Amino acid sequence: MSASTAAENSERDSVRNVSVAIASSPTSPVIFWGIIALVVALDIATKSLAVSHLMPRHVPHNIIGEYVRFTLAYNPGAAFGFNLGPASRWIFAALSVVIVFALMRWTRQLVAISK
User: Fold this and answer.
1) pLDDT tens profile 49-85
2) Distance (Å, rounded) from C-alpha 50 to C-alpha 73?
3) Above pLDDT 70, what percent of the chain?
4) What is the pLDDT of residue 36?
5) What is the mean pLDDT of the segment spanning 21-44?
6) Other Cβ atoms within 10 Å of 88 Cβ, number
7) Are 104 and 96 in contact (CB under 8 A)?
């Protein structure tokens, strides 16, 4: 076995060991869902602050002189300005759920393969 092949095998084994350790760690779901909850809470809090402090809409509010200004505006589209009609929000929500389940399945398969 050449030195480069041995190094590649060693690197592959260490990556496999790390991915299996992360996937099988009993605290990883707790940490994951804790981070998700924190991000959602921060998102809700900052949106609430924006609505309460940046009224009326479409009027710039100076934050740091005239260098940094915030303006309250709403996106009428569902995601990134895309609009697929009145059901846009539900179409993107359903698509997101399908993608999450596909990613979970692929992750489970990759963990099984790497064991």
Assistant:
1) 999 999 999 999 999 998 999 999 987 776 677 777 8
2) 10
3) 74
4) 93
5) 82
6) 15
7) no
Contact assessment for residue 92 and residue 78, using Cβ atoms and an 8 Å cutoff: yes
Task: In whole angstroms, give the CA distance from residue 54 to residue 72.
Answer: 6
Report the distance separating Cα 71 and Cα 51, nearest Å: 10
Q: Which of 95, 62, 60, 57 is nearest to 76 (CA)?
A: 57
CA 97/CA 4 separation, integer angstroms: 42
Model pTM score: 0.52
Q: What is the pLDDT of residues 8-32, one digit of tens each?
A: 555 556 555 555 555 555 668 888 8
Q: How far apart are CA 16 and CA 23, in angstroms?
A: 10
Those residues whose C-beta lies under 8 Å from the C-beta of residue 84, and which sit 6 or more positions away, are 78, 91, 92
**Whole-angstrom distance, CA of residue 9 vs CA of residue 25:** 24
DSSP annotation string for 44-67: HHHHHHHHHHSPSTT--EEEETTT
Q: For residue 27, give the DSSP letter.
A: T
Cα 47 versus chain centre, distance: 17
